[in-house]
What does this fold into?
Amino acid sequence: MFMPIKIINVLLTDRENMKKYVVIILMLFSCMGSIYSQNPSSAIAFDERVHDFGTILEKNGKVTHTFTFRNNAKTAVIINDIYSACGCVGNIISKDPVKPGAKGKVTITFNPDYKSGFFSKEIVVYSNNGQEYNRIWVQGVVTAAEHPVEEDYPYNFGKGLYLRLKVMAFGYVKPGETKQMQLHYANATNREMEMKFVIDGNKSGLVFTSPGKIGPKQRGVINFSYTMPATATDDVMIRVYPYVNGTRLDETLDVRVLNENKLKKTGR
It folds into this structure.
């Protein structure tokens, strides 16, 4: 049996989102009865199960491949629907019944926008009024395009410095435990810049290395680590000021860490 699952990322920030989450779960459960009644199709045989696009360039846009299948049954079959994972769109070419011994076609289009590296996408082709299915795949490697800095680094700190995060949320950390995060940065100017971070006040536990000189249009990553002091009893908030060419910027990078021991004591 096969059960298609869509991965749903839901950020529960308020009651309205909680309601939406509950509705989605109920919808998934309501579909289970029909899903469990599906069986692999013995009538349809695809000429190929996997198509490799090879290396594709994100900047060139969508790529499409046509899969051909044969009807090996003694009666006509109809392709009812195509379920594809994120980034793929299926299109039924043979919409009329495919006679015994005849061939039919489905096309799969993959959109490489904002993707990079290797991908493998499963596509499910439903037939016989949705009671039977076949699985096919497309795969390849995406060479990412360079996007405008504002798309990849949404926080403009001034002086041409862009960051991917405004708040670094380390989550829950036990006293004595260390967690790590990465901060992506970009120099959006056509000039070299000198960039460093300075912690506001006497705050311990946060460790990082400022990048120093950043070339024109250069992008990079800083590794941050935070160790919760063994004697800490409360949550931690640290303000970090970025400096560009010796000038302190007004915007701060905020580091927030939750003390796991506090959660255990208060239950919230």
Notes: The CA atoms of residues 24 and 212 lie 47 Å apart. The first helix runs from residue 15 to 35.
